[in-house]
UniProtKB/TrEMBL annotation:
Residues 84-217 form the Multidrug resistance protein MdtA-like barrel-sandwich hybrid domain. Belongs to the membrane fusion protein (MFP) (TC 8.A.1) family. Signal peptide: none annotated. Gene3D superfamilies: 2.40.30.170, 2.40.420.20, 2.40.50.100, Helix hairpin bin. It is found in: Cell envelope. InterPro entries: MdtA-like_BSH, MdtA-like_C, MdtA-like_HH, RND_pump_MFP. GO terms for molecular function: efflux transmembrane transporter activity. Pfam families: BSH_RND, HH_MFP_RND, RND-MFP_C. It comes from the Bacteria. This is Efflux RND transporter periplasmic adaptor subunit.
């Protein structure tokens, strides 16, 4: 068989398309795919189901913002005790935190100097009394002689004057002796009232001066709760509010107090004002220095209370979702927030009574989207 016969029997290869035709075909297929995808998205958007949300009808309510601050229990009366005379401290009987009764001896100073002064005053009194006795005898003798005409008026007046000087010397010596006795009693420092020792500034052997503070005692009785309050809060609080005092370590221990004292000056370092709350019949569970929480309500105002889940944001500002009652479509409404309280947002401006606000499910919404209400609270 010849080579030509073999070649003619083989099948011929398919014709090749030009490169330009192939490119056109690929672009047509891609355009058809994109068109099909766009149509599917459009149909999906048209058939998108409403979002299930919870709404609340806007209504004004009385809102009294509460402020809670931390403070400490302090004594209503603090006394700084000191010796009335100076000397070396010989003995100290009490320490910080100890409860003492009225008249309890707290410390003593060495009484040697005062005892010496007492002996000297006693000696001066004895000498003055001796002079008074002699002057009295001279006066009586001159008086008798004058009545009998055996002395002169001048001698009698001299004796009378000497008697009066001697009597004055005795009075001065008696006063000095009384002062010496008092100074000796001042060598013992006693508690003027029952209370708790809160500070001590001396040790045995230390030399103290008169009127130098030795102990500080918190007198028994009603206590105060002391708070450092910002000046703006003081201005917003109604006069004479009732303050609830709660023990920080045990919330079951609580009492109600009244504002007893407001400092007239602002602390330049913290910008706060010291406020003392008087606690009548202070519970035994509130000892000195205990940390407490004071809660007070400010003036009541009209505002709208919404759950915190209702709050969203638009253009970086607080807003809420408003539901159109006819179309059930939602839109955002900017609001002004008055305060954030426990679990709620207090709205001051931006809403009207009767409007329907989305309170749950707002994170799934977009402007103009329709919703389905799962439940509404009035």
């Amino acid at each position: 068989m010849s080579r030509n016969a073999t070649s003619s029997a083989l099948p011929s290869s398919p014709p090749r398309l030009p490169r330009r035709s192939k490119t056109v075909l690929l672009l047509a297929c891609a355009g058809a795919a994109l068109s099909t995808s766009g149509c599917q998205k459009q149909r999906a958007a048209e058939t998108k189901l409403p979002v299930l949300v919870t709404t609340q009808t806007v209504a004004l309510a009385d809102y009294a913002p509460r402020t809670s601050l931390t403070g400490v229990i302090a004594a209503r009366t603090l006394n700084n005790l000191s010796f009335r005379v100076g000397g070396r401290v010989a003995e100290r009987m009490v320490d910080v935190g100890q409860h003492v009764d009225q008249g309890t001896v707290l410390a003593r100073i060495d009484p040697q100097e005062q005892q010496s002064d007492l002996r000297s005053a006693q000696a001066d009194l004895d000498a003055a009394q001796a002079q008074l006795t002699q002057a009295a005898a001279t006066y009586q003798r001159q008086k008798t002689l004058l009545s009998q005409g055996f002395t002169t008026r001048r001698d009698f007046d001299t004796a009378n004057q000497t008697l009066k000087v001697a009597q004055g010397s005795v009075d001065a010596a008696q006063s000095a002796l009384s002062n010496a006795n008092e100074n000796l009693s001042y060598t013992e420092l006693k508690a003027g009232a029952a209370g708790v020792i809160t500070a001590r500034q001396v040790e045995a052997g230390q030399v103290v001066q008169a009127a130098q503070t030795v102990f500080t005692i918190a007198e028994d009785g009603d206590r105060d709760a002391v708070f450092n309050v910002q000046e703006t809060l003081v201005a917003q609080t109604p006069p004479s509010p009732a303050v609830t005092i709660t023990l920080l370590g045990d919330p079951q221990v609580r009492a109600v107090g009244k504002v007893r004292e407001i400092s007239p000056a602002v602390d330049t370092a913290s910008g706060s004002i010291r406020v003392k709350i008087g606690i009548p019949d202070t519970p035994a569970g509130m000892p000195l220095g205990a940390a407490v929480i004071g809660t007070v309500s400010a003036r009541s105002v009209k505002a709208i209370l919404l759950p915190w889940q209702a709050l969203t944001s638009t253009a970086g500002k607080p807003a809420v979702w408003i539901v159109d009652p006819s179309s059930k479509a939602v839109s955002t409404a900017p609001v002004e927030v008055l305060a954030f309280d426990s679990g709620v947002v207090v709205v001051d401006k931006g809403l009207r009574e009767g409007q329907s606000v989305v309170t749950a499910g707002g994170q799934l919404l977009s402007p103009g989207q329709t919703i389905e209400v799962a439940g509404a609270s009035q």
